[in-house]
Amino acid sequence: MIKKPYDELSEGELVAASLDGDEGAFGEIINRYRKMVARTVKGMLGDSVFSEDIGQDVFVKLYYSLSEFRGESKLSTYIQRIAINMTLNELKRRKRFFSLFSQKENDEMYEMEIADCDYNEKREASETVNKALKALDPNFRVIVMMRMLQGYSVKETSEILGLPQGTVLSRLSRAQKQLKDILINI
Amino acid sequence: MKSSEIKKIMISSLDTDANLSEISGKLEEEGVTYDFSNNFREKVIDRIFSPGLIINRKLEFMRSMNFAFYRIAFTGVAAIVILLISIFLMEGSISLNSFLGLKDIDDESVICLLTGN
Predict the structure, then answer these.
(1) Could you say which of B27, B33, B40 has the minimum Cβ distance to residue A34?
(2) Beta carbons of A43 and A27 less than 8 angstroms apart
(3) Is A154 exposed, middle or buried, given 0-12, 13-18 or 19+ CB atoms closer than 10 A?
(4) Complex ipTM, two decimals?
(5) CA geometry: angle at A137 spanning A132 and A143, to 5°?
(6) In sequence order, which ranges of chain B are alpha helices (DSSP H)?
(7) pLDDT tens sequence across A19-55
(8) Which residues of B touch A179 (CB under 8 A)?
(9) Interface contact flag, B31 A125, Cβ < 8 Å
(10) CA B64, CA B46: separation in Å to the nearest integer?
């Protein structure tokens, strides 16, 4: 039997091969979804070495929970759920930890290291987006990140977050109001 | 693109009828992109498929915990010894009364102090 290259395999085939311990197949899953996970993790937590670690944790957790993936939803949805749960848990952990110390350290953890932007305008755009996301309430931040950075519809957002569509719509509207207030001061 | 335009795009992305693919495309054009480091894939694969690494990390963690415990314990013991020596030098003994600072106070003065009579 001729083996297809990994980049030509379907999601189901990649999952099955990964479950058999095929490193290359799981590596292909990482390649396909790393940017999506990066948008979620870095959009929610900021760009730092800690986000890189959380990103790794997401894929490690995915690998060990692949046997539970039944293919009822898309693999991207399944990964997105893991990424969001892990970033929300990390935010809670940070909140608990930093409430003992000072807000300043929390801010430092969120410091952005914008990667080699050639133009100041591009750097400015990236900084504006990240500052605004940082200032949002975490419940709104997740909605804004999914909408603005991932391009998810209301239906997809409600499926991933496990919330009724009405709740997502209401949070969108409140998030938009908060975002307007934040952007005035940036 | 000006900062004010980026802000408009951000706000419009939350409209229910927004063209989301167009918005994310515009943001990407303006440098709002996210990715992990170049060797991200290799790091994840190493963590999953190299069990030796995980065991090493656990051992390393236990070793650093041990080290931290000894440092805290030694500091604590040293602090207690210094405290006892300073009490002995100041009070001339290390009885409970001198430890509590009550060595030169007799029972009657304590009662007077507490009752106000």
Answers:
(1) B40
(2) no
(3) middle
(4) 0.79
(5) 80
(6) 3-12, 20-29, 40-49, 51-91, 96-100, 107-115
(7) 998 999 999 999 999 999 999 999 999 887 889 999 9
(8) 10-11, 14
(9) yes
(10) 22
